[in-house]
């Protein structure tokens, strides 16, 4: 076998960490190899621990920051050349130099003051390798410009630390997100939204939970129930202020949950919907009915979910009676025209990252115009038109939601949006479409935050 010569300094790459170029010092006087790392944070279950860390690969450009993660192999004491002992995390990853690759055990430590971001110790040097102390860069040279090569970076997928905000840890959707995250090598923690509390300050804001400060998450998946919308959106805003990506943004959750606000947003974006009217004074009840074209019509409580608080009034007298009852409860509601041609059916389009990934047609139970599955409706696969697909995508975008369940009616003059749901359930649509929706959502999150785009300031 031909000998492999190394100089006292060499370029190498660590593809398993998403690091295409590192300049290393080859030091046979040191037994272990070391990699510059800061913000080091272990995570994951005890039986499969992970470690997350950041690195500035270019010593001359600290604005270039890469986030890495790897399985945690060990934690051991290491004595440096100056005699100081440090307890370090140990990982194993693949190192590539020229046309040769081999597994490397490396410790993580802050080498921010060092000229080289990596130290290659003698345990990393195979028997057929020769180190020539008088030579430099015997192997092919690389460049830090490779970090600006986006297509190359996108080939690497690192493990993510995720959290799902929910008060229903045992429901189907939560379980599926956990399964999909673990299958893709990520860690997902279930957090009860109502038990979060916040330290709000200009720099270094925090979210606390169950007596501890929560770590930095790459992304959160909000599943905010209607009963805690205001507090839930406040928690999501806090995570957003700390730089965490939220699958459903706080603004989008608030918009979609307020039916009046949501319809005003849809109207502003010229998205088709049933004719809608709203008033506060009981004196305007008759005018409301007239504005939507008279009975039959639909009345909706502004804070209703899963078809609850939605009533079909088939006559003007029935409408007036329901309006009077809602007024007596001091509840705000909308009045909408009834789309007869929909015949008790609607279409649920699931939008992920600006694309409709699945759709199903829902039919109401006998003698029930509502098609919600929670109200006894049934579902089946459906092929949607290009117009319906475009309408669903535009509605999700208008609500600023990367994950949305958009409910459409097929009207004579085109699709009409009934509602945009910021926390759509996965059970019905996964079973009907036979698609792994949870995995598609995780793929979208990965594209958003892993690999994280290097932050580099242009010089000059």
TrEMBL record:
For this record, an example GO cellular component is: cytoplasm
Keywords from the named record: ATP-binding, Ligase, Magnesium, Manganese, Metal-binding, Nucleotide-binding, Protein biosynthesis
Q: Which cofactor does it need?
A: Mg(2+); Mn(2+)
Q: Where is the ATP-grasp domain?
A: 263-446
Please report a single Pfam family linked to this protein. Answer: RimK
Keyword DNA damage among UniProt keywords: no
Q: Does the keyword Ligase apply?
A: yes
Q: Can you name one GO molecular function term for this protein?
A: metal ion binding
Xref: InterPro entries = Asp_endopeptidase, ATP-grasp, ATP-grasp_RimK-type, ATP_grasp_subdomain_1, Peptidase_aspartic_dom_sf, Rimk_N, Rp_bS6_RimK/Lys_biosynth_LsyX
Positions in coiled-coil regions: none
SUPFAM superfamilies documented for this protein? Acid proteases (SSF50630), Glutathione synthetase ATP-binding domain-like (SSF56059)
GO biological process, alphabetically ordered: SOS response; translation
What PROSITE patterns has UniProt attached to this entry? Answer: ATP_GRASP (PS50975)
User: Which NCBIfam families does this one have?
Assistant: PRK10446.1, rimK_fam
What family is this protein classified in? In the C-terminal section; belongs to the RimK family.
**What's this protein's name?**
Probable alpha-L-glutamate ligase
Gene designation: rimK
């Amino acid at each position: 076998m031909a000998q492999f010569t190394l100089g006292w300094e060499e370029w190498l790459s660590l593809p398993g960490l998403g690091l295409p170029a590192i300049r290393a010092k080859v030091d046979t006087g040191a037994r272990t190899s070391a990699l510059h790392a800061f913000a080091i944070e272990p995570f994951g279950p005890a039986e499969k621990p992970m470690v997350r860390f950041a690195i500035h690969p270019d010593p001359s450009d600290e604005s270039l920051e890469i986030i890495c993660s790897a399985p945690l192999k060990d934690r051991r004491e290491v004595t440096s050349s100056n005699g100081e002992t440090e307890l370090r995390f140990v990982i194993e990853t693949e190192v590539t130099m020229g046309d040769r690759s081999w597994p490397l055990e490396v410790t993580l430590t802050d080498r921010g003051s060092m000229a080289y971001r990596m130290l290659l110790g003698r345990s990393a040097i195979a028997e057929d390798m020769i180190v020539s102390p008088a030579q430099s860069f015997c192997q092919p040279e690389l460049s830090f410009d490779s970090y600006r090569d986006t297509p190359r970076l996108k080939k690497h997928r690192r493990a993510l630390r995720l959290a799902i905000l929910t008060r229903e840890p045992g429901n189907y959707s939560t379980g599926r997100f956990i399964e999909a995250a673990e299958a893709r090598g990520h860690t997902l923690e279930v957090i009860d939204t109502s038990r979060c509390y916040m330290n709000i300050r200009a720099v270094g804001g925090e979210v606390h939970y169950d007596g501890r400060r929560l770590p930095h998450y790459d992304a959160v998946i909000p599943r905010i129930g209607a009963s805690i919308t205001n507090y839930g959106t406040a928690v999501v805003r806090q995570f957003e202020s700390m730089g965490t990506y939220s699958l459903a943004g706080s603004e989008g959750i608030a918009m979609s949950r307020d039916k009046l606000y949501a319809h005003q947003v849809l109207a502003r974006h010229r998205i088709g919907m049933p004719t809608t009217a709203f008033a506060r004074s009981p004196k305007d009840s008759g005018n409301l009915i007239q504005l939507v074209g008279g009975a039959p019509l639909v009345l909706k409580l502004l804070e209703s979910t899963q078809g609850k608080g939605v009533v079909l009034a088939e006559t003007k007298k029935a409408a007036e009676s329901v309006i009077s009852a809602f007024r007596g409860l001091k509840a705000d509601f909308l009045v909408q025209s009834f789309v007869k041609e929909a015949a008790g059916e609607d279409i649920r389009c699931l939008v992920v990252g600006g694309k409709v990934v699945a759709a199903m047609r829902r039919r109401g139970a006998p003698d029930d115009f509502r098609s919600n599955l929670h109200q006894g409706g049934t579902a089946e696969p459906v092929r949607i038109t290009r117009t319906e697909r475009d309408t669903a995508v535009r509605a999700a975008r208008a609500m600023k939601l990367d994950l949305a369940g958009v409910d459409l009616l097929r009207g004579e003059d085109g699709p009409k949006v009934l509602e945009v749901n910021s926390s759509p359930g996965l059970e019905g649509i996964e079973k009907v479409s036979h698609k792994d929706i949870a995995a598609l959502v995780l793929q979208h999150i990965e594209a958003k935050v892993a690999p994280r785009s290097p932050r580099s300031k242009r010089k000059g």
